[in-house]
Amino acid sequence: MAVGEALSTKEYIGHHLHHLQFNLRTLKIVTPDEAPINFWICNIDSIFFSVMLGCVFLVIFRTVAQSATSGVPNKLQAAIELVISFIDQNVREMYHGNSKIIAPLALTIFVWVFLMNFMDILPIDFLPYIGEHCWLSLPALRIVPSADVNITLSMSLGVFILMLFYSIKIKGFKGFSKELALQPFNHPIFIPLNLLLEGVSLLSKPISLGLRLFGNMYAGELIFILIAGLLPWWSQWVLNVPWSIFHILIIFLQAFLFMVLTIVYLSMASEEH
């Protein structure tokens, strides 16, 4: 277990669902017993692992790019080339505008989200145990950034900002305003209704984008916690192994869907009317 004393099943599950939180006002780590929910609390475990995995992505891809050869590639270079080709093909099929950042953005989103999701495959007690007993005596630790709604909604907020940027850049502020005010009913009398409908449609895209990833990864993490909390250690592999194999598909699929929806939303924002 990730705590120094025996816990009941309820306490064990609750402990693993608690983030390592830091109070920006008091400059202190919040223990699971306190856990106030307010603006000044941030989940530093999610932030740390997000940044760390982003750095891992950059280091690996930069290293391979610098050592790439035109001859027979090694296994790592071949794998990265397959990923880049896969992303490039999807971007060409779905994005019909002209932008130099869409393909790099899609690659970054896919690999970064995949790495964050892949943390769910690690044993549920491994890193929390190290964090408590071997490093800084951390009171709690969650290692899957994409199972934190703050991380997923922050990423979708970035996509939303890009949507607004491309909409105004391609269509102009006047054209974007007309699109919101005169669709789907092209008559001045329906402007309030159009603004309501288009506003809900516009805001629902980033919200659904972030909540979809969060919901799937949170559910996957919760199942691993339930297996560890409800079954004796010697029988957990009976359910853990099949669920881990199936969860690998979910990990890949959620990263792919986040990337695809980002490209689709930006493509819709880039269309001229």
UniProtKB/TrEMBL annotation:
Keyword Transport (UniProt): yes
Keywords, alphabetical: ATP synthesis, Cell membrane, CF(0), Hydrogen ion transport, Ion transport, Membrane, Transmembrane, Transmembrane helix, Transport
Compartment(s) of residence: Cell membrane; Membrane
GO MF terms, alphabetically ordered: proton-transporting ATP synthase activity, rotational mechanism
GO biological process, one term: proton motive force-driven plasma membrane ATP synthesis
PROSITE patterns (alphabetical): ATPASE_A
HAMAP family given in the database record: ATP_synth_a_bact
Membrane-topology annotation of the record: Multi-pass membrane protein
UniProt GO cellular component terms: plasma membrane; proton-transporting ATP synthase complex
Family to which the UniProt record says this protein belongs: Belongs to the ATPase A chain family.
Coiled coil (residue ranges): none
Protein name: ATP synthase subunit a
PANTHER family according to UniProt: ATP SYNTHASE SUBUNIT A, CHLOROPLASTIC
Record function comment: Key component of the proton channel; it plays a direct role in the translocation of protons across the membrane.
Ranges that cross the membrane: 37-61, 101-119, 149-168, 213-233, 245-266
